């Protein structure tokens, strides 16, 4: 506890005792709240054998497994397509020609400002009447909507990453006669990728979370499966707690990778500042 | 354009519900978010741990799951808050704007508690952005933790926090559309309904609702800019 914060002094014996008292009081309040919640759940029969038996059934966990696979499939597709779309938009946004640059900027601003769910609902309605199966329509809508939104967010990340590379790098590259495309490909991108990776992975967590919107267009991913299980077991509380736990575990794994990567990548000179700059363009929430 | 001319009243009501959701959720997220931020910088280790746990858990849970857990799970515990304001005035109006059913209350609370995690992070990074010397000086004249925070650090942090807080509130406004998943009749619900009823005008409907949300977002951004200018000090 020495220099970890400047908001308060390193505590002396008296203060330490006071903090201990606060900790104990806070702990008691917290424990009381937990006990109250548990009792309330027990009273409502959420810990009954019926619920526990239901949640340990093999077919329930098979359904959850199917949901996880579908969720990962959508998330994987959406992330790969988002990176491609984002690169396209980012290059367009950084183009020399105004007639490419300005429309790309508008597209990025538009897709970033509109709720992702609106795009999903729009695409779902748009794919109607072509004889497509319901599940295919839902998949196109979900992946398409996530791609438009996350692609636009990533486009800004890519741009910020390229801008975070010291100017001398591109100046030197131009000076030895490289063309714009070469400067980008050979000099800027390989350096920028270090600064961008943490932000890209944070956005992967967002995309993974947003796949739950598949429920609204009836795609059988984890949230839709959760709804089926909730109906099947006639339980709406513990089932969702379990589903939430599955999502948290999935996302924790991805977040953990991001933290590890950030620690590794931020070793270089000025790298952690550049990484923070790139992360600034991510939308909050 | 008959989707608009025939339904403009319902569309306005739906956006009204969205605004009401945002007001309630905004209030909750600011109160809870500031409290969490205080926990996370407090000298009590248990408080820091609880704050950190809350933020990490909520950030990794999809909003729709939080809303579902509230809106479908809590009624199983016989928790059913609803407010039929229309009844208070003896009127029998069925307008969604005056009747706050269980789904509205729970979806808004869930949205607020979800956003609180992001508010907490914005406030915390604001506190960390105040130069170290400020807190050191405050402490060296004998101020306690609470005094340092209340009189020196927070007033300065608030200035830095306005822009990230505004973008958090903007994200919250966009996220309110998720409430269609638990059956709140807000703007995204109306859009979904209209795309079913007027299948030949889907693009116009999409652009129309997108513009509606953009107006809400612009409103928040403009007020944040105004607030930032008011709080700005010449250095």
| Fraction in beta strands of chain B | under 5%
Architecture of chain B, CATH level 2?
Orthogonal Bundle
* CATH evolutionary superfamily of the largest domain in chain A: MetI-like
Question: Which structural class matches the secondary elements of chain A?
Answer: mainly alpha
The biggest beta sheet of chain A is recorded as: none
What can you tell me about this protein's structure?
The complex is a heterodimer of chains A (about 280) and B (about 240). Chain A has about 280 residues and is mostly helical. Chain A folds into 2 domains: about 1-40; about 60-280, MetI-like (MetI-like fold), CATH 1.10.3720.10. Chain A has 11 helices and no strands. Chain A has helices at about 15-45, 50-55, 60-95, 100-115, 115-125, 135-165, 165-175, 180-210, 220-235, 240-265, 270-280. Chain B has about 240 residues and is mainly α. Chain B has one domain (about 1-230): Orthogonal Bundle (MetI-like fold). In chain B, about 75% of the residues lie in helices and about 0% in strands. Chain B has helices spanning about 1-40, 45-60, 65-75, 85-90, 100-130, 130-140, 145-175, 185-195, 200-230; strands spanning about 85, 100. A two-stranded antiparallel ribbon of chain B has the order 1-2. In chain B, helix 1 (about 1-40) runs parallel beside helix 9, helix 5 (about 100-130) packs across helix 7 (about 145-175) and helix 6 packs antiparallel against helix 7 (about 145-175). Chain B starts with a helix and ends with a helix. In chain B, about 45% of the residues are buried. Classes of the chains: A mainly alpha (about 280), B mainly alpha (about 240). The interface between A and B is large, with 58 and 67 residues.
């Amino acid at each position: 506890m020495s220099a970890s914060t400047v908001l308060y002094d390193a505590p002396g014996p008296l203060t330490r005792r006071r903090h201990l008292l606060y900790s104990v009081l806070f702990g008691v309040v917290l424990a009381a709240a937990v006990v109250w919640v548990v009792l309330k759940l027990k009273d409502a029969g959420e810990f009954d054998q019926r619920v526990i038996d239901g949640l340990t059934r093999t077919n329930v966990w098979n359904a959850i497994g199917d949901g996880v696979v579908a969720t990962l499939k959508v998330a994987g597709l959406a992330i790969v397509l988002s990176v491609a779309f984002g690169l396209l938009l980012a290059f367009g946004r950084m183009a020399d020609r105004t007639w490419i640059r300005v429309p790309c900027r508008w597209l990025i601003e538009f897709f970033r400002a509109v709720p992702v769910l609106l795009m999903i609902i729009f695409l779902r309605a748009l794919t109607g009447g072509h004889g497509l199966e319901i599940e295919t329509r839902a998949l196109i809508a979900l992946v398409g909507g996530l791609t438009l939104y996350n692609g636009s967010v990533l486009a800004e990340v890519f741009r910020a990453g390229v801008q975070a590379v010291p100017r001398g790098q591109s100046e030197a590259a131009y000076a030895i006669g490289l063309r714009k495309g070469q400067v980008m490909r050979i000099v800027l991108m390989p350096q920028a990728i270090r600064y961008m990776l943490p932000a890209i992975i944070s956005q992967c967590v967002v995309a993974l979370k947003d796949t739950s919107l598949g429920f609204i267009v009836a795609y059988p991913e984890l949230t839709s499966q959760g709804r089926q299980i909730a109906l099947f077991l006639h339980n709406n509380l513990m089932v969702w707690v379990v589903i939430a736990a599955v999502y948290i575990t999935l996302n924790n794994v991805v977040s953990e990778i991001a933290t590890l990567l950030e620690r590794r990548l931020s070793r270089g000179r000025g790298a952690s500042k550049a990484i923070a700059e790139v992360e600034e363009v991510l939308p909050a929430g | 354009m008959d989707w608009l001319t025939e339904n403009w009243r319902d569309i306005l009501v739906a956006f009204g519900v969205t605004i009401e959701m945002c007001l309630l959720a905004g209030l909750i997220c600011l109160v809870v978010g500031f409290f969490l931020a205080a926990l996370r910088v407090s000298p009590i280790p248990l408080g820091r741990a609880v704050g950190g746990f809350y933020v990490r858990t909520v950030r990794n849970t999809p909003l729709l799951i939080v809303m579902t857990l509230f809106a479908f799970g809590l009624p199983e515990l016989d928790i059913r808050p609803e407010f039929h304001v229309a009844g208070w005035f003896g009127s029998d109006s069925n307008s969604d704007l005056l009747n706050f059913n269980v789904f509205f209350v729970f979806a808004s609370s869930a949205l607020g508690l979800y956003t609180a995690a992001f508010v907490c992070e914005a406030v915390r990074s604001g506190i960390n952005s105040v130069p170290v010397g400020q807190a050191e000086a405050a402490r060296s004249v004998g101020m306690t933790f609470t005094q340092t925070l209340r009189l020196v650090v927070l007033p300065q942090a608030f200035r830095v926090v306005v822009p990230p807080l505004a973008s958090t509130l903007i994200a919250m406004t966009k996220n309110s559309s998720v409430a269609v998943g638990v059956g709140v009749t807000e703007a995204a619900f109306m859009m979904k309904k209209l795309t079913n009823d007027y299948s030949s005008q889907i693009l116009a409907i999409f652009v129309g609702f997108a513009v509606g949300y953009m107006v809400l977002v612009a409103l928040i951004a403009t007020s944040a800019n105004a607030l930032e200018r008011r709080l700005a000090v010449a250095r």
